[in-house]
Each structure stands twice: as structure tokens, then as C-alpha cells.
UniProtKB/TrEMBL annotation:
The lineage of its organism: Eukaryota, Metazoa, Ecdysozoa, Arthropoda, Hexapoda. It comes from Aphis craccivora. Keywords: Disulfide bond, Signal. This is Trypsin-like. Residues 1-19 form the signal peptide. The keyword Disulfide bond applies. Pfam families: Trypsin (PF00089).
């Protein structure tokens, strides 16, 4: 697949995903993903971070741009990035797992750190994955979401869950969510921001958190968005308060 065509397609069709919730609960109510259920899922890791990502072609992985910033400065070398696919528990090696080193990282040209609706998208190039029952691609949707209605979708990632302090989640989880680009679903955002944002309906604190950044929002079997940021408090239409950065959906 031609890189320029792929990146332009992702820029035009993929939007960032934010969540509004009152409590910083991570994946409360989420379910453990089944083997082979999401063969396009990858965990992307570096000594300073881990993020989720989605395989969109044999050699390209889509994720969030903010995964490659250290202290809000973009500066992680592609060769220092590892991408693992074919697993649901990254702490357990299996015959299905495939690990690739990053060869290129392309950040959306309009990306700006610490801003909502900031084109928080990145593509990682790797040596081509071998397509199997456990490793495969997901189609990037060429359809828009309804503006004023909620649509049922699924968010997927390796983010933290409700575990005892000091214990980290290593198992892939999924969460059913309701997504919209409406003013009601995205309170406090300007019209131009909502054109780049999918918002998820509050559901008793359910959501994604650290480690879910870059994970896909899947609607009707296609990739519609990439996990971007969480907002926990909307004070009025013109003022909003940020939650600590959690790649969340």
C-alpha cells in the first residue's frame, strides 16, 4: 500500500476519540477479549511508554501521536519502538505472537501536544507482518458517524483496569460504548473541534485509561477513531477542565 495514500486516508477518515466521565475509573465493566477476536490489535512499547495500536496494512500500524512524546516533546526513535501482535496477554509468549521493530514513525503534520482535536494520529512502519488467524488488518472506514445520534461501538486496548495498586494489566480488554459527534455528546467543544472528535457517552465511570492510547474505536466492524484523551468535568459551554492525560475512549 502506498504510504502517501494510506496516510492521507487516515488523516481524512480517522478522528480522535475522547471520553467524558466523572471518575477516573479504568475499564470498569470491560471484558477480556477472546483469542483471535481482534487480530489487528498491537501493543506498542518503548522504555518510557506503552500504547495500543491497530494494523491497517501488512507494514503499517495506526496509533496516537502523543505516544511518541517524552515530557510533551516528540523524540522517540523508530528503532527504539517494538510492536507486538498476535497476542491477548503480552506477558505470555505464544507461537502466534509476532514482534516487529519500528522503521519509520510519521506524525500527523497538524499534531500539537496538550490540545484537544489536535490530529493526534501517527503511523508506524514495520517489517511486514505475516497474516494469520491471529494477526491481520482492520479496514479504515470511509463512512462518517451520524452527527446527532449515538452508535454502538467497541473500544479495545491494553489499558489499566481495576487491579490492586502496583499491579499492571497485561490482558487485552474490550468495552462496549456509545459514540457520537453531537454537541450534546461533546459538551464544551467548539464546532470545529467536534468535526475532528468522536465523543463517548458517560456510563457510570466506564472508560479506558493508561495504555489504551492509540487503541481503535470499532463501529460496524470498521475502524472509526483512535483513542486520544479524557475530560472529566465540563463546567459550562465555554469552559472545560482536563483530566490527567489518559489515552482514553
Amino acid at each position: 500500500m502506498n504510504f502517501k495514500h494510506l496516510f492521507v486516508s487516515c488523516i481524512l477518515l480517522i478522528v480522535s476519540v475522547v471520553c467524558y466521565r466523572n471518575q477516573p475509573v479504568c475499564l470498569a465493566g470491560g471484558e477480556v477479549a477472546k483469542s483471535y477476536e481482534f487480530p489487528f490489535m498491537t501493543i506498542i512499547y518503548h522504555k518510557t511508554m506503552s500504547c495500543s495500536g491497530a494494523i491497517v496494512s501488512e507494514e503499517w500500524v495506526l496509533t496516537a501521536a502523543h505516544c511518541f512524546s517524552i515530557n510533551y516533546i516528540l523524540g522517540i526513535k523508530p528503532s527504539d519502538i517494538k510492536v507486538m501482535a498476535g497476542i491477548t496477554n503480552y506477558a505470555e509468549k505464544t507461537n502466534n505472537s509476532q514482534v516487529r521493530q519500528g522503521t519509520e514513525v510519521h506524525i500527523h503534520p497538524n499534531y500539537r501536544v496538550k490540545r484537544v482535536a489536535n490530529d493526534d494520529l501517527a503511523l508506524i512502519r514495520v517489517k511486514p507482518f505475516l497474516m494469520t488467524i491471529a494477526v491481520n488488518t482492520i479496514h479504515v472506514s470511509d463512512r462518517g458517524l451520524p452527527i446527532n445520534d449515538y452508535i454502538a461501538c467497541t473500544a479495545v486496548g491494553w489499558g489499566e483496569v481495576d487491579k490492586p495498586p502496583g499491579r499492571h494489566n497485561t490482558v487485552l480488554h474490550k468495552l462496549k460504548v456509545f459514540s457520537s459527534m453531537s454537541a450534546k455528546a461533546c459538551p464544551g467543544l467548539q464546532d470545529w473541534e467536534r468535526r475532528k472528535i468522536i465523543c463517548l457517552k458517560q456510563d457510570n465511570g466506564k472508560g479506558l485509561c493508561d495504555g489504551d492510547s492509540g487503541g481503535p474505536l470499532i463501529c460496524q466492524g470498521e475502524l472509526y477513531g483512535i483513542a486520544h484523551q479524557v475530560y472529566k468535568e465540563i463546567k459550562n459551554d465555554n469552559e472545560r477542565k482536563d483530566l490527567e492525560r489518559c489515552g482514553a475512549v
